[in-house]
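We treat protein structure as text, and this decision shapes the records that our systems exchange. The tokens are whole numbers drawn from a learned vocabulary of local backbone shapes. Below, we set out a record of this kind in full and without editing:
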Amino acid sequence: MIFKCSFPTRWADFDPNNHMRHSAYNDYAAEARVRLFKKFGLTMQEFERLKIGPILFQENTKFFKEITMGDDISVEVLLLGVSEKGERFKFRHHIYRGDGKLAAEIEILGAWLDLNKRKLTVPPRIIIELAEQLNRTKDFEIIPVSKK
């Protein structure tokens, strides 16, 4: 499944040089993930009911083309990696300008947190199904998990 969503940019996304703020790119990537989860029925209320939530360990952004005020953007979310039991994940986000040019690429590494125990956990089946359906990158990998 290809997951892509579009956004109109906002005045607050830009710096005095008329460039999108670096942190705004990450905000749109996070919003795209929230919308992806919601598409699978994983709303914030459902995460609360399941007592599970995503956490990030790393976030890396590469910038290619500038986005200026008034540009609309789209964000594509791809699965870059997942551990065997699904407890860790990597996503790659492509952020495109309104003219279709790639403006930025964001990669994140995260895991699922049991909200009661405050420890990493294996996610429920619905999250595994999401990972199975989402388009994978060409360099997709199985993430090793250390045994402690």
Notes: The longest strand covers residues 102-114. The mean pLDDT is 96. The radius of gyration is 16 Å. Residues 22-39 form the longest helix (18 residues).
